[in-house]
Amino acid sequence: MLAIVKQAEAVMVTTLPRGPRGHFLLGSGPDFARDQLGFYAACAREYGDVVPVRFGPRRGLLLYHPDAIEEVLVTRNRDFIKSPGVRLLSRLLGNGLLLSEGGTWLRQRRLLQPAFHRQRVAAYGEVMTSLTVRRLADWRDGDVLDVHAEMMTLTQAIVAKTLFDADVSDESYAIAEASNVLVEDFGKRLGSLIQLLPDWVPTPANLRTRRAIRRLDEVVYRMIAARRRNDEDRGDLLSILLHAQDADDGSRMSARQVRDEVMTLFLAGHETTAVALSWTWYLLSQHPEVDARLADELRSVLGDRPPAVADLPKLTYTEMIVNESMRLYPPAYGIAREAVNPGEVAGYPIAPGLIVIMPTWVVHRDRRWFDEPEVFRPERWADGLAGRLPRFAYFPFGGGPRQCIGNAFALMEATLVLAAIAQRFRLTLEPGQRVTPTPYLSLRPEPGLRMSLARR
Ligand code: HEM
């Protein structure tokens, strides 16, 4: 029997933990593929905080205790690299910030960081609100929309304008279509774990994926070329990248690296935030009392004007709603690593090649840290709950050196977009819809979110 004891900051395993036996050949691969979230939850329930698993020939370890997660993401982060699961994205994202490692990663992170400094991010606030208000001009009382698709289009426009000063509105349909192909392909390949055929074999699925990547490449290269043509330094992220490409001091960045960073930021910068907003609309429509309190706050803080960055400190309930929504439906539903050095985590021996998975989805619903964990209750975040929790009981943006670079950007964006929309409209889920959290690249609401709009 596994016993984890929380002593001061230490996690101690007193006996070696047990895990599911699974299929004799495939291990837990089939259970994982059938229902990834259910598999994570069942393992925690049955085996505790540290659960050894096997996927085919690969050994894995599931970690559910905040202190053990901290060991992997912070204390011993040098003993781990990104997991083979997330590396499935390398065809699309290349060596951009999400997937690069070691010296390349550190150099690129330092280079890009200034575009995400607090003051810089505050300057993006106006664009976030004005693009939202512009989108709302097409919304009519009584309309029924796929709100998830709307959130994707909006967050795409926001990331393109703020980081690359580009307008992608004419391409939003093509981007959505290509992204859907890639996200589904990623989900399928993650589920199958063992690759039967390599990427270059021209199966219909591989050809479809290749076409989708080409389509997104066109968008990215067009943004880069447009900036090159008028050649002015706007001090935004694209200027930083192009300036580094032109550097003659030995730190020159290749055109391919510029492409990889733009693609990474474009995709990582809109999919997750759109998902966070979508789940927030879903939860609000299921909890009219929360929706009413939100409307009150917006009325009293903003009156009739759209939200601005200066209003954020007063939009406390709005922010609690965003936090609570990401607790129940964390867009990054799990974080994974591969061990590259031998060692120990939570007293469990780690060998190179071991896959460590930290399922945010389960940790965020742990009753040791959250009372009535399944209940959507934004008020729980009042009175400084965040400060009282173990650091990795709530980690929607990960942690340690690889923590999300867009953390402050995303929180500000989600809060402003939520405020600007909820101020004007109440969104209600169309009857008869079953919305399922589906783990692709992020935790998408499937099959989308058909909601009706009522003007407030
Ligand atoms: C609600 C929205 C978001 C969530 C939940 C989220 C979540 C995360 C998480 C959990 C990681 C760490 C992954 C790991 O440790 O393996 C990450 C990394 C990253 N995110 Fe986000 N993210 C969000 C929004 C954004 C935005 C808006 C941007 C950019 C504009 C962005 C860009 C990135 C990048 C580039 C990385 C890799 C950072 C590195 O490794 O140095 N994310 N994100």
Explained architecture:
The chain is α+β, with helices and mostly antiparallel strands. The chain contains 18 helices and 14 strands. Bound molecules: protoporphyrin IX containing FE. Protoporphyrin IX containing FE is lined by residues 97-98, 109, 159, 264-265, 268-269, 272-273, 276, 331-332, 335, 396-398, 402, 404-406, 409-410. Residues 97-98, 109, 159, 264-265, 268-269, 272-273, 276, 331-332, 335, 396-398, 402, 404-406, 409-410 line the site of protoporphyrin IX containing FE.
Write the SSE topology.
Layout (H helix, E strand, L loop, with lengths): L3 E4 L2 E4 L15 H6 L1 H12 L2 E6 L2 E6 L2 H10 L4 E3 L1 H4 L2 H4 L8 H11 L5 H19 L7 E3 H18 L7 H21 L11 H27 L6 H10 L8 H14 L2 H16 L1 H15 L13 H13 L6 E5 L3 E3 L2 E3 L4 E4 L1 H4 L21 H4 L18 H16 L2 E5 L6 E4 L3 E4 L3 E6 L1
Parallel strand pairs: 4-10
Antiparallel strand pairs: 1-2, 3-4, 5-7, 6-14, 7-10, 8-9, 11-14, 12-13
Helix pairs in contact: 7-8, 7-18, 8-12, 8-13, 9-10, 10-12, 11-12, 13-15, 13-18, 14-15
The protein binds protoporphyrin IX containing FE.
